[in-house]
């Protein structure tokens, strides 16, 4: 029997990484092929994938032969050492920080946290939901506003989202948005780029004198220059004109300064990076957004709230599900459908670990160090840009700025060159007196006697904070490391993550996140690097990024790749903005229509709206394919206005469309561009390429196909890949260390705050590709397709498989139709999902892309025993549903409608159900020794929306 999968390596020889990553070996594969009805995996995949798009393995490849784990780590170590070790004092929203070891070991490096999925199944996500409500409470307390969401992608994109909130909520009849001239430069660049696409006019201002009419104003607090100022009068003036005020505020500074809410801000945004989250050359970091009362329903992103379960006990869940903007499709006001959960958890736990007194002490030391530096500089008659500052000092050194920065770099410090006259120095919690002395030496001031410094010496006393914050007991209860460790462990134990078992989520690809891939993320040579560090100090990072860009370009069939987008949604937006830029450059300003199939991911439509396009929906046929007739009709109808088609391949329905080349050619013939959504690349990698399908641009999900963990709902990386004619319009950045990429020069505006996005987790995907090699990537695709078809065949007689392609085959996922089950038995898709928890599983994707269905994706990482365990659970649940239909159990009191069952359910009080305790919690005997116990019963979703509580409830609520 031939196979695309190699035989397992002999036990005496270290196994190849591919053997570790792919869960099914030759024996299991043979059994699965027998069930599916194919002689080989190669034959299976080549039948499923249309012959017209097959690509053969390349004779030569930019991807080197697969490395062992030891070899990959050695190469990463070489790249790491090519990054020059330096102390970053650049600032501009990025600061070195100490990640408490107890948090680093028990969160950042703990698979119980980093392999978890988005908490759509809240009953098995109570730990990370509590951590996120801690985050929201921390943000609302410090910003002085009513409600915060569960994190944003970064500060600059959060500012853009704040601008969009202001536009929606404002009563002013104008498209003008005022932007602080002292805003962070990367934020201003992003604002200009994003505003242009949606018809907003940006006017930069110092806020002196009369203000023009505007729907909103953005202020930086403290400013990029370090200046701390009272913007309350500006807020009054903007409000009087019907506008809203968005303030970007430094959370550490807010432990000493009056809150944005107290100064009149309607929306506060920023980053939580300096709360223990490593720099990572720009990310991933958790941005934040908080709003005043009355704007809760305008919040983008995710919002965690308190509800109650089936017995009235308090329980956490995602509130106001309309926050999930992709559900609203073309009516969306934001394309944010993710968060930075893992990083938000770190930031929240940093606040839990330090408490308000600890944070205030850290901020005081930072402000004292900055004042000591400023006092020494003044004593030598050097002029400062502002005397009112928190941590940033701008120094005027006419004609000497380059010399000062160079002298500092020779001493191991990175300062900010502002212009020929000005140098910026930003201190942080890691800064010592020795560091200050070295910086002074770079200014030519040797042997200066430093004073202690006075925090906020030059700041008006009215701006000093005098109210309490972080008063909830959670910020006071875990002072010892023992207590903190146990708290983190208790939260992790409440959750179901990939370290417990399979998470068979269609469209989400919860595959193995190997320990070797994760190792380099914590190395200081990667984790403590400022995103605006000079090129000479980041050669290792740039080389790794260049290699990864080349590898991704090769496997997708494109010419250029930008790694800047820090989420799949942002990659979509970057690709569409590139198409927009291309049409504008060609004078085709009327091309604004984006065709999107009805089956597409909801973020497609949301991203198109934010790229300034008009969405036109294309119908799908009964098989789930794009309706060619409707497509041609829509192209003819909008021929002169056609900008792009967005299509997912394989389709969102989990099948390979045979007419894809005809589809893309029709769009090109009409002058449009083709955007191929890369969400399902893991069903194609090594067998076909987006660029060969007629794609002009795609985004990729490194947190899916290329093994970056989901982290409970973030981080992610969503690179954008394009053909050469679109490459000039890919994202650029004002602080990029290089203008030229392997695919050309990128001149489009930025889509994230950092030049290379969430670069700190790129070593994960680099290691994955390096250890798999081109052949290993192909084998992973084959294994994923085999596993999905095995599940589809075994379950087909119990649950109809909604869509299939050639030979009745699916791609890497299959959609199980539970609507007939509901009609026959009354059991809903929710009942099945919750009952799966009792069987020890996370449910598949519910009701997407079709309501009343489950989309199942096993991935290549699961072994046959786990696949069979899942199949057996689904078959057993079908039997239970039939028992309800047969009247063995009442429709309103059976194991399905009462699922999930907690330990308390079966041990406390009288058992009054018509089924046994054993049936409730041990439906199969294998659970007895390894049972996962959900901490709460089924959660009442509607109650939480009717009674919106989005901050930590009092401890007595859980008594």
From TrEMBL:
It catalyses: N(6)-[(R)-lipoyl]-L-lysyl-[glycine-cleavage complex H protein] + glycine + H(+) = N(6)-[(R)-S(8)-aminomethyldihydrolipoyl]-L-lysyl-[glycine-cleavage complex H protein] + CO2. One of its GO terms (cellular component) is cytosol. The modification N6-(pyridoxal phosphate)lysine is found at residue 704. Its cofactor is pyridoxal 5'-phosphate. GO terms for biological process: glycine decarboxylation via glycine cleavage system. Pfam families: GcvP2_C, GDC-P. Keywords: Oxidoreductase, Pyridoxal phosphate. It is an enzyme of class 1 (oxidoreductase). Its EC number is 1.4.4.2. The keyword rRNA-binding does not apply. Residues 19-443, 475-733 form the Glycine cleavage system P-protein N-terminal domain. GO terms for molecular function: glycine binding; glycine dehydrogenase (decarboxylating) activity; pyridoxal phosphate binding. Residues 780-901 form the Glycine dehydrogenase C-terminal domain. The glycine cleavage system catalyzes the degradation of glycine. The P protein binds the alpha-amino group of glycine through its pyridoxal phosphate cofactor; CO(2) is released and the remaining methylamine moiety is then transferred to the lipoamide cofactor of the H protein. NCBIfam families: gcvP (TIGR00461), PRK04366.1 (NF003346). The glycine cleavage system is composed of four proteins: P, T, L and H. Belongs to the GcvP family. This is Glycine dehydrogenase (decarboxylating).
């Amino acid at each position: 029997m031939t196979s695309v999968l190699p035989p397992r390596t002999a036990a005496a020889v270290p196994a190849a990484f591919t053997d570790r990553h792919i869960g099914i070996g030759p024996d299991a594969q043979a059994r699965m092929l027998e069930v599916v009805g194919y002689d080989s995996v190669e034959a299976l995949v080549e039948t499923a994938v249309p012959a017209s798009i097959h690509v053969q393995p390349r004779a030569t490849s930019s991807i080197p032969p697969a490395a062992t784990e030891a070899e990959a780590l050695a190469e990463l170590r070489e790249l790491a050492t090519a990054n020059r070790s330096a102390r970053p004092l650049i600032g501009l929203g990025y600061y070195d920080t100490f990640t408490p070891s107890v948090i680093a070991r028990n969160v950042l490096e703990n698979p119980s946290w980093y392999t978890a999925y988005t908490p759509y199944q809240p009953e098995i996500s109570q730990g990370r939901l509590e951590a996120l409500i801690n985050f929201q409470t921390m943000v609302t307390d410090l910003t002085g506003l009513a409600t915060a969401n569960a994190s944003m992608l970064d500060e600059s994109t959060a500012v853009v989202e704040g601008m969009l909130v202001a536009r929606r909520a404002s009563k002013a009849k104008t498209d003008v948005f005022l932007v602080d001239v002292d805003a962070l430069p990367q934020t201003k660049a992003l604002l200009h780029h994003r505003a242009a696409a949606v018809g907003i006019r940006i006017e930069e201002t110092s806020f002196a004198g009369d203000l023009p009419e505007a729907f909103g104003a953005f202020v930086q607090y403290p400013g990029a220059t370090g200046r701390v100022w009272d913007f309350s009068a500006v807020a009054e003036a903007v409000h009087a004109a019907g506008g809203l005020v968005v303030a970007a505020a430094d959370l550490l500074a807010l432990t000493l300064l009056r809150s944005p809410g107290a100064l009149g801000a309607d929306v506060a945004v920023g980053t939580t990076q300096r709360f223990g989250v490593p720099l990572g050359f720009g990310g991933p970091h958790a941005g934040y957004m908080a709003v005043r009362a009355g704007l809760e329903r305008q919040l983008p992103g995710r919002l965690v709230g308190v509800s109650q379960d089936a017995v009235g006990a308090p329980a956490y869940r995602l509130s106001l599900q309309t926050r999930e903007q992709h559900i609203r499709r073309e009516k969306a006001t934001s394309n944010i459908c993710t968060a930075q959960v893992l990083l938000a958890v770190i930031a929240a736990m940093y606040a839990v670990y330090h408490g308000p007194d600890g944070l205030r002490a850290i901020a005081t030391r930072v402000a004292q160090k900055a004042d000591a530096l400023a006092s020494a500089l003044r004593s030598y008659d050097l002029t400062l840009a502002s005397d009112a500052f928190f941590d940033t000092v701008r120094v005027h050194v006419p004609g000497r700025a380059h010399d000062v920065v160079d002298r500092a770099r020779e001493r191991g410090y990175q300062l900010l060159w502002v212009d020929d006259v000005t140098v910026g120095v930003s201190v942080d919690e890691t800064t010592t007196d020795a560091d200050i002395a070295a910086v002074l030496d770079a200014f030519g001031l040797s042997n200066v006697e430093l004073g202690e410094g006075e925090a906020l010496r030059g700041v008006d006393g009215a701006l000093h904070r005098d109210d309490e914050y972080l008063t909830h007991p959670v910020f006071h209860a875990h002072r010892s490391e023992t207590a903190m460790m146990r708290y983190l462990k208790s939260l992790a134990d409440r959750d179901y993550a990939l370290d417990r078992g399979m998470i068979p989520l269609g469209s989400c690809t919860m595959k193995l996140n190997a320990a070797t891939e994760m190792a380099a993320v914590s190395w200081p040579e990667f984790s403590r690097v400022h995103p605006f560090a000079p090129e000479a100090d980041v050669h290792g990072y740039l080389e790794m990024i260049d290699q990864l860009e080349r590898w991704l370009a090769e496997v997708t069939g494109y010419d250029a790749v930008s790694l800047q987008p820090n989420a799949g949604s942002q990659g979509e937006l970057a690709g569409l903005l590139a198409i927009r830029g291309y049409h504008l450059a060609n004078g085709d300003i009327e091309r604004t229509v984006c065709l999107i199939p009805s089956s597409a991911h909801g973020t497609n439509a949301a991203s198109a709206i934010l790229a300034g396009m008009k969405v036109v929906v294309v119908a799908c046929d009964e098989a789930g394919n794009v309706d060619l007739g409707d497509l041609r009709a829509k192209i003819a109808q909008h021929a002169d206005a056609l900008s792009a088609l967005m299509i997912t391949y394989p389709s969102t329905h989990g099948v390979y469309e045979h007419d894809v080349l005809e589809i893309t050619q029709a769009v090109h013939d009409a002058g449009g561009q083709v955007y191929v959504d890369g969400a399902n690349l893991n069903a194609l990698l090594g067998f076909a390429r987006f660029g060969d399908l007629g794609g002009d641009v795609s985004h990729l999900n490194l947190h899916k196909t290329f093994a970056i963990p989901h982290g409970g709902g973030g981080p992610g990386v969503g690179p954008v890949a394009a053909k050469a004619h679109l490459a000039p319009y890919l994202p650029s950045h004002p602080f990029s260390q290089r203008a030229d990429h392997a695919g050309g020069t990128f001149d489009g505006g930025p889509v994230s705050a950092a030049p290379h996005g969430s670069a700190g987790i790129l070593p994960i995907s680099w290691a994955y590709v390096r250890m798999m090699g081109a052949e290993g990537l192909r084998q992973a695709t084959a294994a994923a397709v085999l596993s999905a078809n095995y599940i589809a065949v075994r379950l087909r007689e119990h649950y109809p498989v909604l869509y299939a392609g050639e030979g009745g085959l699916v791609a890497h996922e299959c959609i199980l139709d539970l609507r007939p089950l509901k009609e026959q038995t009354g059991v809903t898709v929710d009942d099945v999902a919750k009952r799966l928890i009792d069987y020890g599983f996370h449910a598949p994707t519910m009701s997407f892309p079709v309501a009343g269905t489950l989309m199942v994706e096993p991935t290549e990482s699961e072994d046959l025993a786990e696949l069979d365990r899942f199949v057996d659970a689904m078959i057993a649940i079908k039997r239970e549903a039939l028992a309800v239909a047969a009247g063995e159990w009442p429709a309103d009191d059976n194991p399905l409608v009462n699922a999930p069952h907690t330990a308390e359910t079966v041990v406390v009080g009288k058992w009054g159900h018509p089924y046994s305790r054993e049936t409730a919690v041990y439906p199969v005997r294998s659970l007895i020794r390894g049972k996962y116990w959900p901490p709460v019963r089924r959660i009442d979703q509607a109650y939480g929306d009717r009674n919106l509580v989005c901050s930590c409830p009092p401890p007595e609520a859980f008594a």
